[in-house]
Write a structure and sequence with these properties.
The protein is of the alpha+beta class and about 120 residues long. It has a single domain, classed as Gcn5-related N-acetyltransferase (GNAT) (Aminopeptidase), CATH 3.40.630.30. About 25% of the residues lie in helices and about 40% in strands. It binds coenzyme A (COA). Coenzyme A binds next to strand 3, helix 2, strand 4 and helix 3.
Length: about 120
């Protein structure tokens, strides 16, 4: 789908990761791989099919991961963002903590979003 294929995601799922897929009429538009990391969920990988970039698929998947964190009583979601995606996560309330150099991906920004303990309900 991007650097990895859907098959890679399924293999991670077999190893115990949580994999969420956004599917529409049999077409996989986006996929996300999540790992439990102590009090947080680690969003390990997310990819939206290039044909559907900018159509809200990534945002929907991110929201589902946040819901999952809340339902699992986690404190929030952490991730390591590519430079090209930092703004995307920032718009969704993720705060940059620090940067680190990765052999495979280059510079990554470690970001975190705390989940509010109180769930807000629309009035
Ligand atoms: C980054 C990614 C997951 C975003 O998913 P998406 O479905 O394209 O994003 P959405 O349509 O939900 O975006 C919502 C908003 O963020 C913006 N946005 C999307 N990607 C962005 C980016 N990389 N940087 C800044 N803003 C971005 C959109 O323009 C949109 O803005 P709007 O609400 O004002 O119209 C997707 O583009 C992708 O898979 N990219 C390639 C792989 C990648 O970078 N993965 C992340 C690794 S850390």
């Amino acid at each position: 789908m991007d650097r990895y294929t859907v098959k890679d995601y399924l293999n991670w799922k077999k190893k115990g990761d949580i994999v969420l897929v956004l599917e529409d009429n049999g077409v996989i538009k986006g996929i996300v791989d999540v790992v439990v990391k102590g009090d947080y969920l680690l969003l390990d990988m997310i990819a939206v099919h290039a044909l559907f970039h900018g159509h809200g698929v990534g945002s929907k998947l991110l929201k589902r991961v946040e819901e999952l964190a809340r339902n699992m009583n986690k404190r929030g979601v952490v991730l390591e963002a590519l430079d090209s995606a930092v703004d995307f996560y920032h718009r969704h309330g993720f705060i940059p903590l620090y940067k680190r150099a990765d052999k495979e991906f280059g510079v990554l920004t470690v970001m975190r979003k705390e989940i509010s303990v109180l769930e807000t309900v629309r009035s």
